[in-house]
Amino acid sequence: MTTLTRATLGKLTQRATKDIDIGGNTVRIQRPTPLEFSQYQMSLVDKDGKASISKFADAIMSLVAKMWIDDAGNRLFQDNELRELGSIDLAFYQELSEECQRFASGGNEVVLGEFDSTPGLDSHVESV
Question: What is the rounded CA–CA span in Å between residue 116 and residue 64?
Fold first, then answer.
């Protein structure tokens, strides 16, 4: 067994990728970095730490933009291109966003934005 050092961390900076099929199209996604995932989680809550339903769509779209890559590992959409990402087919985007959320969380987290109710969130969201 080898103890990891800063000099040997290179292999841990290579992010896991996954190819998924959506409507006959192969889409490659990469697991977010800890910083990207933390930013995603923080963007889901307001300053009081309560779930903010109004922030879900933007937070998920930003996560998808960070995770969707081409064959060379380059992002297809940068943070300033979310409008273009938001113009793709809705059914395609929904499936992609659900896959991104599952892959980002290791399959252990409820996927937000699904049409059925998300357990536990209703009690934390204030009505506007």
Answer: 21
Of 3 and 82, more confident: 82
Residue 68 is part of a domain; what is its CATH number? 3.30.2220.20
pLDDT at 108: 66
Strands of the sheet with 17-22, listed across from one edge: 17-22, 25-30, 68-69
How does 12-26 read in b/e, with b if 16+ C-beta sit within 10 Å?
eeeeeeeeeeeeeee
State mean pLDDT over 23-33: 96
Residue 2 inside a domain? The answer is no
Distance CA 4, CA 13 (A): 13
Other C-beta atoms lying within 10 Å of the C-beta of residue 33: 12
CB within 8 Å of 4: residues ≥ 6 apart: 12
Give CA torsion, residues 73, 56, 103, 106, to 10 deg: 140
